[in-house]
Structure formats: C-alpha cells, structure tokens
Amino acid sequence: MQSRVVIVGGGTAGWMTASYLRATFGDRISVTLVESSGVATIGVGEATFSTIRHFFEYLGLDEREWMPECHATYKLGIRFENWRRPGHHFYHPFERLRVVDGFPLSEWWLHQRPSERFDQDVFVIASLCDAMRSPRHQSGRLFEQDFVENGDQPVYRTTLAEQDTQFPYAYHFDASLLAGFLAKYAKQRGAVHVVDDVVDVVLDERGWISHIVTRDFGEIEGDLFVDCTGFRGLLINQALAEPFVSYQDTLPNDRAVALRVPVDMAKTGIRPCTTASAMDAGWIWTIPLYGRIGTGYVYAGDYCTPEEAESTLRKFVGPAADELEANHIRMRIGRSRRSWVHNCVAVGLSSGFVEPLESTGIFFIQHAIEQLVKHFPAESWDERQRDSYNQRMARCMDGVREFLVLHYRGAARADNAYWRDAKTRTLPDGLAERLEQWQTRLPDTESIFPYFHGFEPYSYTSMLLGLGGIPLRPPPALGLLDGTAAAKEFQAIGDQARDLVNRLPSQYSYFAHLHDLPPERRADAS
Ligand code: FAD
What we know:
There is one protein chain. By secondary structure, the chain is an alpha+beta fold. 37% of the residues lie in helices and 19% in strands. It contains 20 helices and 23 strands. The longest helix has 28 residues, at 383-410. The radius of gyration is 23 Å and the shape is globular. It starts with a strand and ends with a helix. The model is unreliable at 157-163 (pLDDT under 50). The structure holds flavin-adenine dinucleotide.
C-alpha cells in the first residue's frame, strides 16, 4: 500500500497538493509536508485560470468566506495592452463564442465587422471589464443567471460533473495568504507540518527515494514523495537527476522583477481582469487584489538588464513604487522531461513553468494534482500509470508553450529588435502549419488538438483577432449565407452588455461590502 505521502515545499504547490490529497483520500493516506523556514517561497503567482473554481469547490470552500481572507478579487479575463500598437487594448475573456448558423460568431465578425472592437462585439465580458464590474450581484447571484432568467441563451451551462468545462471567471489572490489558508485547511484535516530544511535525499539500491533527511527532525520515510521545492527541483532534478527540457529557444523571457504596491481601491476601483502591458523587452503584469496591486516586468535577459527592467517597472507604476523593495527573479522556462520518476512526482515550478502571460502556473499545479489522484498508486506501482501521467503533463505544458509563442508571433508590434526577433524565432512543432490554416478558418477544437491545456478555440481566436499581426479572412461560404441572424446576435450581445453594466455592482463596491461584514455573515451576504 503506497499510503505515506511526503511533500517537500510549502509554497502554493505544496499546500494545494496537501489539501487536495487530504480532501480526496482522508485517513486512507498520511500526508507530511516539510518546508524550510530559511528558503522563501517564490512570492508571486496571484492570477489564475478559470478552472481554478473546480479546485475550491472540490475542497468545499465557499468563496465568500475564503476570498476576503486572501484579499482575493474576481478575474473575468486578461486585458492585453499595446500588443498591437500603443494605446490599443483588447480582452481575452473567459467566455465561449456563440455559434450562428453553424459558424462561430468570430467568423461572422470577420465577414460583417460590426465595429472595430472584436472583443466587445462577440463577448459580453469585454464590456464588463471596461466598466470594472463584478460578475456577481451583492446577493451572490452570478451574472450568467441574468441570461437564463431573461430567457436568453445562457453563455455557460456548466456543471461540476463536467470537470473540464470552464467558468466565466477565475480569481486573483495573495499567494502567501492563500498558502496560509490552505495550510490551515490541510492541517485541520490531519496533514502533518514539519518546518525544517531537507539536507539530503537518500536513494535505495533501485534508485528510488527511500527517505529524506532533515536538519533537526532527522529522517522522514515515505512511499510517495512530492517535489514542491520550486525552480530548484531538489528531488526530481537534483536527487533523481531527471533532465530539464528548456523552452528558451521559443520563449526567451527568463527574468522578472516584481513589486507589491498598496493602493486606495476606493479611488482607483478594481479591474476584474489581469492586465498584460507589452513593453520593450517583454511585458508587465498588473494584478489587482483587494487593497494592493501585484505587478512585475517579465523580460528577456538578452535584451534588457535587471537595472533597466526595475527602472522601467518603477516608471510604469509611478510614485506609489517609491520606497518599495523590488523582488528580482530568475525563471526556469521549460519542464522536467518527466514529472513523475520512480516514487517522486514533481508538482509546481519543479515540474515546469512558462512565463505567466496566461496565468498558467497554478493551473499546471491543479492539473497535476487532479491527474495524480487519477493515477494514484494505491496497491502497487505500475509503469503504465506513470507514463500516462507524464504524457499528460508534458502535453499540457507543451500546449501552453505553443499558445504563448502565438502571442509573440501574432502581435502586430514589431518596433524594436525584441519584437522583430519574435517574428522569426523557431516555432514549436506544427504551429507554423496551423497558423497558415487559421488564416482562412479560425481555430476549432480539432485544429488545436493534440493538446489538452485548458485553452479552447475561443482563446486562440481572441488572441489572433486581438493581436492583429496575422492576416485573417472569413470563410468564403459566409458570403453565400443570409447574415441576418448573426447581425441580430451582435445586437443582442451589445444590449446584454449594456444591461449588465447598469445592473451589476462595481467590483470595488462588491468586495467593500463583503469585507465590511463580520466573517460569520459573509456566506449569506446580500
Ligand atoms: P515555491 O513558491 O518556490 O516554493 C518552494 C518551497 O520549497 C518553499 O516552501 C521552500 O521553503 C521549500 N524548499 C525549498 N528547498 C527546501 C529544502 N531544502 N528543504 C525544505 N523546504 C525547501 N502562476 C500563476 O498561476 N499565475 C501567475 O500570475 C503567476 N505569476 C508568476 C510570476 C513569476 C515571475 C513567476 C516566477 C511565477 C509565477 N507564477 C504564476 C507561478 C507560481 O508562482 C508558482 O506556480 C507557484 O507559486 C508555485 O510555486 P511552488 O510552490 O512550486 O514553489
């Protein structure tokens, strides 16, 4: 029975894994989490992808209870600024495309072009983001319920049973507060917490991990070891010598500098989206939490020095950045060749990482944990289970890499060496061919196969249409069809968006209201 799980690392990956395993298996397995008090967590990673809601719901956590504790806010999508030209912005929202007469509305948009704003014409969420609205009413009702009650076609019909479906929003949260919250959750459910440094990882004669050695607590034995030690990959890469497959040739951004900026949200409001602003050697993220902004410049060390990057970030933030300490981070871009080797599974940065342009770090963690449960070695070790797990994780990360490369190749911006080089750099397998196809037929499920990486055709389409660097044509068949229904749908989306902007509260007032309530009253706030 492989029932003793030892997790090394107490960052987001470690605590998400500990809580999920305890919630799933209860006392049928033991979970021990060892973390160093001397090695800090990465300290960033605060924007998520919409499937994250499955994670919280699975743990049985009510968002109106945990969100205020983690200074969390809603995220309806990503706002891309200046990727096409200075001053231009568009959204990649969590909203599926509607289909009219068998064609996605995006293709009808290319044919009819009702306005210059593709995102506003085909997605309701773009207008909600511009107007900084909360997706929920004070009563806790979600905006999609308006569609149902008004008799319109609902944008989403998701049920938890359909695990791969997406919700129309994700979260921003303070990563260290969330780790603390999940630590409490896991410990209440029996996870053992050891604060100590792992000083050695001991292998048996087969080359499997037999135990770890900690400085003060001595040896800790286990059956399954989970490496959540971040970029250092203490177990997977160092002890087991699993090679790291770099993505640097296709994604050159390898550094970041970050700031935590307090802001008066009553004055600024809270945007319900992450913002990614294109810069001279990369891009700056802006993540609005309740009470502060997380921001950072992701850049390529070959094009920009750390000093230049920090100065660019400080200028971007303005006087609020004065006196704040900057956190400089070197990023390891790519993945461990296999995430699961013998009796060790890497989860989090030790498994793999791509720049956070689409907020996929925590998504990788969630996907890894869900797959770990599905492949859990209950009775005995089975090589086929490990292979299946490794294949899925590799495909997921390779798929996200491809999607990110598309962001740079597809951006109209080409005003300096960094952006020009992005147009000639190597493309991952098959992307060049698919880009050709997408010029006349926008991405559909089959053409983004073989990857499962959470992104759906609407994501690819949003980026291709928003970035503006790749010429796109509507399918010729649309010229032979009556476009009346499509025109009506554009009109309906505009009407729905205006109506919702009028009726939904601002994101700031929604959370100010929630924070004002005593914690015991938040779950039934209205
Ligand atoms: P870490 O946070 O590095 O934790 C490592 C843990 O291992 C620590 O607890 C440390 O104490 C412990 N440890 C290390 N060595 C030892 C030892 N010898 N003994 C005991 N313990 C040890 N993801 C997103 O989803 N959205 C984002 O917006 C996003 N932005 C990011 C921006 C940047 C610049 C970077 C670099 C990453 C970003 N990520 C983002 C990724 C996200 O931060 C990580 O996926 C997430 O924080 C998980 O990190 P981790 O737990 O794997 O590692």
